[in-house]
Amino acid sequence: MYIDPKWRVLTVGDGDLSFSASLLKYHRPRQLTATIYDSKDCLDEKYGDEYYRQLQQENCQVITEFNVTDKSTWGELNNKSFDVVIFQFPLLPAFSSQQAFQAQCENFSVNTLNRVLLRKYLLNCFEYFLDDNGAKLALITSKNVKPYREWDIERSLIRHSAINFIGRFYFDMTKFPDYKVRNVNRDKHVKSTQGTTYIYSSDPLESCKIIFDHASDDYITYNRPSRVPAHKTCQVCRTGAFTNERDKQMHLASKKHHQMFEYEAQWSLFLQQEDVNN
Ligand SMILES: C[S@@+](CC[C@H](N)C(=O)[O-])C[C@H]1O[C@@H](n2cnc3c(N)ncnc32)[C@H](O)[C@@H]1O
Known about the structure:
Layout: E1 8-12, H1 18-27, E2 31-35, H2 40-46, H3 50-57, E3 61-63, E4 84-88, H4 98-104, H5 110-129, E5 137-143, E6 164-171, E7 195-201, H6 204-214, E8 220-222, E9 233-234, E10 239-240, H7 245-252, H8 255-277
Parallel strand pairs: 1-2, 1-4, 2-3, 4-5
Antiparallel strand pairs: 5-7, 6-7, 6-8, 9-10
Helix pairs in contact: 1-3
Bound molecules: S-adenosylmethionine.
């Protein structure tokens, strides 16, 4: 992940704040505002306040109880004054009880609710946090394993919006010493599996240039159209090329495909309802 020293950075949902503390110490951006979803008491209880104190000692603004989907928790942050916003390993907060789970999942699955969180994050980044005259980059780092890969992060989140998916790069943990990826609700350090950072912008040409110029040492895949003919792939699962029709039919009959098909149908329904409500 390239961080330009001229950038003003906003971090979202930063568990124990170890990512923000590392970013500040080793990448020295012009300005950093770090936010966490939890209250300060909750932070103390779950993880301790080591990184909170480190950031405060460096005069870095830290905001607690910041819900990226809820404007009323943002204070003054909605004035489009950042170059880049970063959400590392996003995941819905744990449900407080079985009743809370049932209430939230009455209409939509956890898969859809995670996509909703990320869609709102991206829409709010470009509407409220990112400076129209700045770098205009929103980043999501996630894992390429279940359940995260079932969110179709690259395509589904920005459907019917003016946001572009620019490409992705390998998240190199070694560039963020002391960063511990945290579980949503416990003081556990999540077993680290390879992360991928997905890059979005409202301004694809300019952003591509920044990424091209500076990220040469990261492995990058740009968002180029696939050369594989569509009929040899499964667009829902993003798999293929199938070697023959039998392979394709076997895939279409598989449990995995049916599950993804169901997720996609539910996501389309959510987007239709969002359209009606806007
Ligand atoms: C798997 S944890 C990762 C924590 C941290 N980003 C890291 O890399 O260690 C997912 C994080 O997303 C945060 N989160 C979930 N929903 C959120 C929301 N609506 N607004 C802000 N943060 C949220 C949770 O509080 C949690 O800290």
